[in-house]
Write a structure and sequence with these properties.
about 270 residues; mainly alpha; rod-shaped
């Protein structure tokens, strides 16, 4: 008790940092043996602050992080875990920081941690899942649509087409009226969608081509693909009938409509 009191007086005085460090290090053993986790966290925090960079400081930071987890002290535990990034304990630190940032609602910090985890993941499926959450966090917390768009486009650039990502990206592109990119994403979506959805997606691409991109030839091709997937797709037939009035594509539109009309005529007979 006498030694503890002397060490504590040196720490409280805080006059000589080297003496404070020695006393705090001695108190670590005393409080650990006594099972006093809160006082142990107090002195470990001092050791982490005063110990020069190196193994001793990292060991103290790791011990502090674990003790703070035990007592539920996120305020001191978070910087302790942060000190373990870029060390041999990074994987453990990333996992704990993910939980701490999530609980604290620190979206930007959480996104950065998830991004680091995605970069370290050896399982492609895990990396993709983590990266998706990064994009979701950054887009939902973005102050402007352009930042949200960059988040999803970056995800697609790295991880390739994804129906879930397309679902987030398409409304943003439409709001920004970036119609060429809307059509590009629709074409990528067709490659991933089940056959039952192809007709509607081709029809949507055709509408973008004719109404937004001034591309009647591309629209005719898209509507033709929609009807090939489903001859009863209603909007494609109506659009092709409108395109009969456009001289440059009237012949192609008629060629697509003629089999439908013939088929209907045979059914009426």
């Amino acid at each position: 008790r006498r030694a503890q009191a002397e060490f504590e007086s040196v720490v409280e005085a805080g006059i000589d940092e080297s003496a404070v460090l020695v006393s705090a290090s001695s108190l670590v053993d005393i409080f650990a043996e006594a099972g006093n986790s809160r006082r142990l966290a107090d002195v470990l925090e001092i050791v982490v602050r005063l110990e020069p960079p190196g193994d001793a400081r990292l060991a103290a930071a790791r011990r502090l992080a674990r003790v703070c987890d035990e007592v539920g002290d996120a305020a001191r535990g978070t910087p302790a875990w942060e000190a373990l990034l870029d060390t041999e304990w990074e994987d453990e630190a990333l996992e704990r920081l993910q939980a701490l940032y999530d609980q604290a609602g620190k979206r930007d910090a959480l996104a950065a941690i998830l991004e680091r985890r995605a970069g370290r993941a050896t399982d492609p499926a895990e990396a993709r899942q983590l990266a998706f959450r990064v994009a979701d966090l950054r887009s939902s917390g973005a102050r402007d649509r352009d930042a949200a768009l960059r988040a999803w486009q970056s995800y697609l650039d790295v991880h390739g087409p994804s129906r879930e990502a397309h679902a987030r990206l398409l409304p943003l592109l439409e709001q920004e009226q970036r119609w060429s990119e809307v059509d590009r994403v629709l074409r990528a979506e067709i490659e991933l969608a089940p056959a039952a959805e192809h007709a509607a997606l081709w029809a949507r691409s055709g509408q973008v081509r004719v109404a937004r991109l001034d591309d009647p030839a591309g629209a005719v091709a898209a509507f033709g693909a929609a009807l090939a997937a489903d001859p009863k797709e209603p909007s494609s037939r109506a659009a092709l009938e409108q395109l009969l009035r456009v001289p440059e594509v009237a012949h192609e539109a008629a060629a697509l409509l003629e089999p439908l009309y013939r088929s209907e005529g045979r059914r009426r007979e």
